[in-house]
Amino acid sequence: MSSISKNVIRFFKLAGINKRKDVEFFWKNIEKQFGNLGRSFREAIAARSDGQAVNPYEVRDASLELSLAVYSQYEADFASGLMSWIEEVEIEVPKRVLDIGCGNGVIACFMANLWPDTHVTGIDTSLNSIRCAEELARKLKLGNVKFEFGNAKDYFAKYNQSDIDMVLTSKVLQEVFTEEVGGFDLACPEDAFDTYEEIERLPELSANLIEFLNGVKAVLSDNGKYISVDRCGIPAAYVFLCRHFKEAGLGLIPARCEKIVGEDVGGYKESFPLSFLKKTPLAAEPSTEIIISLHKKMLLSEKLECINPVDGFVAEALYLAIGDKRPVHEAELIYRNGSGIMKMHLFHSEILAGVYKTTSRGMRQLEIVPLAEASAVVDAYFNEISKLSEYCDINENVSLDSSLLNQLGLEVVQSKA
User: Fold this and answer.
1) Are strands 352-359 and 341-348 parallel, antiparallel or unpaired?
2) How many domains is the chain partitioned into structurally?
């Protein structure tokens, strides 16, 4: 994702969305500026953190000024990423857009401002949010956006046309579940699954979500696009979500997918996969491995750090997700005692270097580092091959891209089997 565009910055200024403040100063100022309403909002946040069924956004959106102040602090980074993607994505300007779960209307108003000839409709189940959205539209003098109170199911039932060119849902699909499906949560922790086999045993699909997606598909025009941005904490969650897309007959286009980073009112930073879908299914649907790689690619692009060796499907998914890999050296190590074969791959891209290992017994392991720190990985790679040569017959491929080794001032000396 590129940096925030000038159009987004300009829109934030017009809407009254400001720079993030120091957290302690922000909360003191909220109570000072908004009095009882500010205190009620903070109490609602605390109650939700304690597990109570409280919706702090209903309190937040009781006032447009409070809503925008909180939005500036905790949602502007997410919104700016999504808005920048909307501006940059190469699609024909839509004639009609539907924003389901529009909240206070910021993103819907941005689209109406960006595309003055487009008719934008936002719907939400919070009356306070709809009132905020309408006030924001008046403030921005937008005549091409409207907001309706109600849920998606009722909207789909009364809207019996198929002429919407773009449907957007942002942090909505998780809420479509009326209860956890088989104990499964789209925002489940990172270590919930560890193998492909466990992913294949995911729970039954959610009837509620399938019904919702069928409604989305029904209102889309023939060339309509559906943009979903939602919580998917682990690859398995994204696979689960994509199975619902497939069941509803929506076609996921991996090349158009992205990752949006946001921080919620509790201060937790999250990565939200952005799924780009067309109304009709693809001739060849993306495989489970591609979907996992797509999820990991989104996470990988967030921040490049040293990744200590990771194993299993996570290692494979990360390795597949790294684009434009250039092999530096490959070695096949055949254990003389007949216990198996290990393959080692030393590679680099424009920004990182790494080693990927696989064995005939199913082991997969990956380690990557920033390119500037490649020398340690390269040294460890060749030292391991040297040690294993005592127990293995080695086949090496040294006729590969040696630019990384040249850059580090190293040479490949073929091991003696």
Assistant:
1) antiparallel
2) 2
Token pair in block for residue 48 = 């939700």
Mark out the alpha helices in 115-234 (DSSP H runs). Answer: 127-139, 152-158, 173-176, 196-200, 207-219
Q: Which domain holds residue 158?
A: 77-300
Pairing of strands 326-335, 364-370: unpaired
Give the pTM.
Answer: 0.73
Tens of pLDDT, residue by residue over 66-78, are 999 999 998 998 9
**292 and 368 co-located in one domain:** no
At 8 the pLDDT is: 94
The single residue listed with the structure tokens 């090349």 is 255
Of the candidates 300, 330, 359, which is a domain's last residue? 300
The alpha carbon dihedral of 195, 197, 198, 202 has a sign of: positive
The tokens describing 208, both together, are: 């509620």
Give me the residues paired with residue 167 across strands: 98, 226
CA distances from 271 to 27, 72, 244, 301 (A): 25, 18, 20, 10
285 phi, psi to nearest 5 deg: -70, 145
Q: DSSP letters of 262-290?
A: EE-TT--EEEEEEEEEESSPPSSPPPHHH
Whole-number mean pLDDT of the chain?
A: 83
Contacts of 50 (CB under 8 A, 6+ apart): none
How many Å apart are CA 36 and CA 30, to the nearest integer? 10
**200 and 346, same domain (yes or no):** no
Residues paired with 352 in a beta bridge: 370
My answer on whether 330 and 239 are in the same domain is no
Residues 151 and 239 in one domain: yes
**pLDDT value of position 303:** 41
Asked if residue 203 is part of any domain, the answer here is yes
Q: How far is the CA of 324 from the CAs of 39, 209, 277, 351, 373, in angstroms?
A: 52, 36, 25, 10, 19
Boundary of a domain, candidates 266, 300, 334: 300
Give pLDDT, residue 267: 60
Residues of the chain with pLDDT under 70: 1-3, 177-202, 263-268, 289, 293, 296-310, 312-314, 317, 321, 323, 398-417
Query: d(Cα 404, Cα 368) in Å, to the nearest integer?
Result: 14
Within-domain flag for 98: yes
Statement to judge: residues 236 and 162 lie in one domain: yes
